[in-house]
Write a structure and sequence with these properties.
The chain contains no helices and eleven strands.
């Protein structure tokens, strides 16, 4: 059974950076696309970035383009989300998810429990 565990969240000041990690276990990560999602208080969960199984294809939602970078290290069974120039509106619970099929979407098969990111001075 595939399991995902997010880490790296925390409190950061506006303009700061965080790197989230998504550790994958139970399966060969190479076969799965990985998506990063977030859910802010009172809002629906949205996909913010997605990476194909080989890493050749990446997607970014408009509000994070140029600030966030998705990557993966299949040898380490870990995906990452580097978040720079953070804004208060980036405050949310961040989730990673995995599925054999693209596109990344709310209906992906496997989900982590999330990590909280708070951007505040």
């Amino acid at each position: 059974q595939l399991q995902l565990v997010e880490s790296g969240g925390g409190l950061v000041q506006p303009g700061g950076s965080l790197r989230l990690a998504c550790a994958v276990s139970g399966v060969t990560m190479d076969d799965y696309a990985i998506g990063w999602f977030r859910q802010a208080p009172g809002k629906v969960r949205e996909v913010i970035s997605c990476i194909s199984p080989t890493g050749a294809s990446k997607y970014y939602e408009d509000s994070v383009k140029g600030r966030f970078t998705i990557s993966r290290d299949n040898a380490k069974s870990t995906a990452y989300l580097q978040m720079n120039s953070l804004k208060p509106e980036d405050t949310a619970v961040y989730y990673c998810a995995a599925d054999k099929y693209l596109p990344c979407r709310n209906g992906m098969d496997y989900w982590g429990k999330g990590t909280v990111v708070t951007v505040s001075s």
